[in-house]
Amino acid sequence: MTEFDCQETKRHVHEFLQAELTEAEMDEITAHLANCDSCEADYDFETLFNDVIKRSCDEVPAQELSERILGKIRQTLAEGH
Fold first, then answer.
1. Where in the chain are the domains?
2. First to last CA, the chain
3. Which H helix or E strand runs over 38?
4. Which residues contact 39 (CB under 8 A, 6 or more apart)?
5. pTM of the full structure
6. CA triple 65-67-72, angle to 5 deg
7. What is the pLDDT of residues 10-61, one digit of tens each?
Protein backbone atom coordinates (compact mmCIF):
# COMPACT_ATOMS: atom_id res chain seq x y z
CA MET A 1 0.00 0.00 0.00
CA THR A 2 1.27 3.45 -0.90
CA GLU A 3 2.04 5.89 1.89
CA PHE A 4 0.27 9.13 1.08
CA ASP A 5 2.71 11.82 2.05
CA CYS A 6 2.44 15.29 0.48
CA GLN A 7 4.12 14.27 -2.76
CA GLU A 8 1.88 11.23 -3.28
CA THR A 9 -1.25 13.09 -2.25
CA LYS A 10 -0.59 15.91 -4.71
CA ARG A 11 0.25 13.38 -7.43
CA HIS A 12 -3.09 11.61 -6.95
CA VAL A 13 -5.46 14.47 -6.13
CA HIS A 14 -7.07 14.34 -9.60
CA GLU A 15 -7.78 10.61 -9.29
CA PHE A 16 -9.07 11.27 -5.78
CA LEU A 17 -11.56 13.85 -7.09
CA GLN A 18 -12.68 11.45 -9.81
CA ALA A 19 -13.01 8.57 -7.29
CA GLU A 20 -10.56 6.49 -9.35
CA LEU A 21 -8.65 5.12 -6.35
CA THR A 22 -9.30 2.19 -4.07
CA GLU A 23 -11.35 2.78 -0.95
CA ALA A 24 -8.23 2.43 1.21
CA GLU A 25 -6.37 5.01 -0.92
CA MET A 26 -9.33 7.38 -0.75
CA ASP A 27 -9.37 7.03 3.05
CA GLU A 28 -5.62 7.67 3.33
CA ILE A 29 -5.79 10.79 1.16
CA THR A 30 -8.82 12.05 3.08
CA ALA A 31 -6.91 11.63 6.34
CA HIS A 32 -3.84 13.37 4.88
CA LEU A 33 -5.92 16.29 3.57
CA ALA A 34 -7.52 16.72 6.98
CA ASN A 35 -4.09 17.27 8.54
CA CYS A 36 -2.14 19.09 5.82
CA ASP A 37 -2.94 22.70 4.91
CA SER A 38 -0.65 22.67 1.87
CA CYS A 39 -2.29 19.62 0.30
CA GLU A 40 -5.72 20.90 1.25
CA ALA A 41 -4.97 24.11 -0.67
CA ASP A 42 -3.96 22.05 -3.73
CA TYR A 43 -7.15 20.02 -3.37
CA ASP A 44 -9.23 23.22 -3.19
CA PHE A 45 -7.51 24.59 -6.30
CA GLU A 46 -8.02 21.33 -8.23
CA THR A 47 -11.69 21.29 -7.22
CA LEU A 48 -12.18 24.87 -8.41
CA PHE A 49 -10.28 24.17 -11.63
CA ASN A 50 -12.43 21.09 -12.37
CA ASP A 51 -15.59 23.11 -11.74
CA VAL A 52 -14.49 25.80 -14.20
CA ILE A 53 -13.74 23.17 -16.84
CA LYS A 54 -17.12 21.50 -16.33
CA ARG A 55 -18.95 24.83 -16.66
CA SER A 56 -16.94 25.78 -19.74
CA CYS A 57 -17.61 22.48 -21.44
CA ASP A 58 -21.35 22.88 -20.95
CA GLU A 59 -21.41 26.16 -22.83
CA VAL A 60 -22.02 26.14 -26.57
CA PRO A 61 -19.41 28.21 -28.46
CA ALA A 62 -20.57 31.11 -30.58
CA GLN A 63 -21.36 30.16 -34.18
CA GLU A 64 -18.60 32.45 -35.49
CA LEU A 65 -16.02 30.80 -33.25
CA SER A 66 -17.12 27.33 -34.31
CA GLU A 67 -16.85 28.28 -37.98
CA ARG A 68 -13.37 29.79 -37.50
CA ILE A 69 -12.13 26.68 -35.72
CA LEU A 70 -13.57 24.36 -38.37
CA GLY A 71 -12.03 26.56 -41.08
CA LYS A 72 -8.59 26.30 -39.46
CA ILE A 73 -8.94 22.53 -39.13
CA ARG A 74 -9.94 22.19 -42.78
CA GLN A 75 -7.08 24.48 -43.85
CA THR A 76 -4.57 22.46 -41.83
CA LEU A 77 -5.86 19.18 -43.30
CA ALA A 78 -5.75 20.59 -46.84
CA GLU A 79 -2.16 21.72 -46.35
CA GLY A 80 -1.20 18.23 -45.23
CA HIS A 81 0.00 19.14 -41.72
1. 6-78
2. 46
3. helix 37-58
4. 6, 9, 10, 13, 32, 33
5. 0.61
6. 95
7. 889 889 998 999 999 999 999 999 999 999 999 999 999 988 888 877 767 7
